[in-house]
């Protein structure tokens, strides 16, 4: 049976996700959807031109919601990144735009009988993931956001540079909102087989956490958009789903104790969230998680 993915929103991020998936041969069929028909058609031709130099075949379909009926995964990359060009680098500047688009997209997915997994990149991702679940009616475990998977990677990059280890050898998470209320759960971070507190002072940890949080701002203000980091996170999540890998990832998923979507580690597979990890966090970090949850819930309620 053909593996099929839909990508809704073919801007900088959506097109980068599509290119990465096609180059890796992750899926067989790619449904590319965007309101800018000239742009999405150009992408389709560009990907087709690349086919002769790739090891895998890809079937490209453009602006056909009916083709999403039996898709394994639909990735929401819709948004308006220009709205983030504000003095506070606030991802919620995109909310009026994305919150308006989600109900229409969800309605179309319901109309064709889509029953796969929704992966949300669109900002502010925790609220938009909540909205997709609300309007699509899909089970909560089948609607997932990239969340702090990227922020966690930024934390690992900062730690790796300080302590001269590969970022893949740093273990731990950023939790909560993919935004300004996120935090690095230092109680969970390990390098060289030990807690990071064995290597770093509280001031160093504070500096690293800040660097992770503003990493997106650094990229955005350098080129006025982000693409490779978030696309890689989305691709990793999509691969975990379609390959049924049961990989542990810090992604935006429904966290029942706080009654909201936020980033918390979960086991990801073909059914979406297979299992949520049970962390033992110190009181200080539990309080930060609760604060982040309250912020997300308030923004979600305002956007309905």
Describe the structure.
By secondary structure, the chain is of the alpha/beta class. It has two domains: 4-145, NAD(P)-binding Rossmann-like Domain (Rossmann fold, 3-Layer(aba) Sandwich), CATH 3.40.50.720; 149-303, Lactate dehydrogenase/glycoside hydrolase, family 4, C-terminal (L-2-Hydroxyisocaproate Dehydrogenase, Chain A, domain 2), CATH 3.90.110.10. 42% of the residues lie in helices and 19% in strands. It has nine helices and 13 strands. The chain has helices at 12-24, 37-50, 95-111, 125-136, 149-163, 202-213, 215-223, 228-242, 283-303, and strands at 4-8, 29-33, 59-62, 73-76, 117-120, 143-145, 174-175, 183-184, 190-191, 194-195, 247-255, 260-269, 272-276. The strands form four sheets. It has a six-stranded parallel beta sheet, sandwiched between helices. The chain has a three-stranded antiparallel beta sheet with strand order 11-12-13. Helix 2 (37-50) links the parallel strand 2 and strand 3 (59-62). Helix 1 crosses helix 8, helix 3 packs parallel to helix 4 (125-136) and helix 4 (125-136) packs across helix 9 (283-303). The longest helix has 21 residues, at 283-303. The chain is globular and about 55 Å long.
Summarize the structure.
The chain is of the alpha/beta class and 304 residues long.
- CATH overall fold name of the largest domain: L-2-Hydroxyisocaproate Dehydrogenase, Chain A, domain 2
CATH-scheme architecture of the largest domain: Alpha-Beta Complex
Helix content: 40-55%
Terminal residue distance = 38 Å
Fraction of residues in β-strands: 15-25%
> In angstroms, what is the radius of gyration?
19 Å
**Structural class, judged by helices and strands?**
alpha/beta
Following the backbone from N to C, one meets helices and strands in this order, namely EHEHEEHEHEHEEEEHHHEEEH
Any low-confidence stretches, pLDDT <50, length ≥5? none
The number of helical runs is 9
CATH class of the largest domain: Alpha Beta
Output mean pLDDT. 95
**Strand ordering within the main sheet:** 3-2-1-4-5-6
Question: In the CATH hierarchy, what is the superfamily of the largest domain?
Answer: Lactate dehydrogenase/glycoside hydrolase, family 4, C-terminal
Gross morphology: globular
| Beta-strand segment tally | 13
């Amino acid at each position: 049976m053909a593996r099929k993915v839909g990508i809704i929103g073919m801007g900088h991020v959506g097109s980068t996700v599509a290119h990465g998936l096609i180059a890796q041969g992750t899926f067989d069929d790619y449904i590319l959807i965007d309101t800018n028909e000239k742009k999405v058609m150009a992408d389709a031709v560009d990907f087709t031109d690349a086919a002769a130099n790739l090891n895998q075949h890809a079937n490209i379909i453009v602006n056909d919601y009916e083709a999403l009926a039996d898709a394994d995964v639909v990735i929401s990359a819709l948004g308006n990144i220009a709205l983030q060009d504000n003095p506070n680098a606030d991802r919620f500047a995109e909310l009026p735009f994305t919150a308006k688009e989600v109900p229409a997209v969800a309605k179309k997915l319901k109309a064709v009988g889509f029953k796969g997994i929704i992966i949300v990149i669109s900002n502010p991702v925790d609220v938009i993931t909540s909205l997709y679940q609300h309007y699509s009616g899909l089970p909560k475990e089948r609607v997932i956001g990239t969340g702090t998977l990227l922020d966690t990677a930024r934390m690992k990059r900062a730690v790796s540079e300080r302590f001269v280890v590969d970022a893949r050898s740093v273990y731990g998470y950023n939790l909560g909102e993919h935004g300004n209320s996120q935090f690095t759960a230092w109680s969970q971070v390990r390098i060289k087989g030990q807690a990071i507190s064995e290597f770093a002072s509280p001031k160093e940890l504070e500096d690293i956490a800040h660097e992770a949080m503003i990493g997106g701002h650094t990229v955005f203000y350098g080129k006025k958009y982000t693409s490779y980091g978030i696309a890689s996170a989305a691709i990793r999540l999509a691969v975990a789903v379609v390959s049924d890998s049961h990989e542990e990832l810090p992604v935006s998923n429904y966290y029942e104790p706080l009654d909201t979507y936020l980033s918390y580690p979960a086991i990801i597979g073909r059914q979406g969230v297979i299992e949520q990890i049970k962390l033992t966090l110190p009181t200080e970090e539990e309080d930060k998680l609760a604060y982040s949850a309250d912020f997300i819930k308030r923004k979600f309620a305002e956007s309905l």
